[in-house]
Predict the 3D structure of the following.
Amino acid sequence: MSIRDIIEGKKEWRSHVARVKALPKDYQIVYKEIQKYYFKVGPVELTEGTDLLSGIIDLFEEGAASGKGVLEVTGSDVAAFCDDLIKDSETYADIYQRSADEEVNKAMKKVMNKTEKHR
């Protein structure tokens, strides 16, 4: 990653944060909780830019412009709203699960091979 990429990324993030701050307070609160949720759940695409979060801001800006409350946009179960948005996305949990499964399978094959050799 070049210095130019880093600078562009920071500019993009600052612009993103400015859009969040321009939202009504209830939208800002829910957005920040969504952001925390995603940083914990870890959809991989979050490390590839702000597209997912920017899409949520787009949705929130539309909802606010039409006079809707934030929970009219997301529904009362905000976590379910978040999960639905990333249901087809890979998460870090998916990667860790695959890794754990692969390690167990490797270890089991080793044990089985040793057991068969001693028969």
User: Anything to note?
Assistant: The chain has six helices and no strands. The first helix runs from residue 3 to 22.
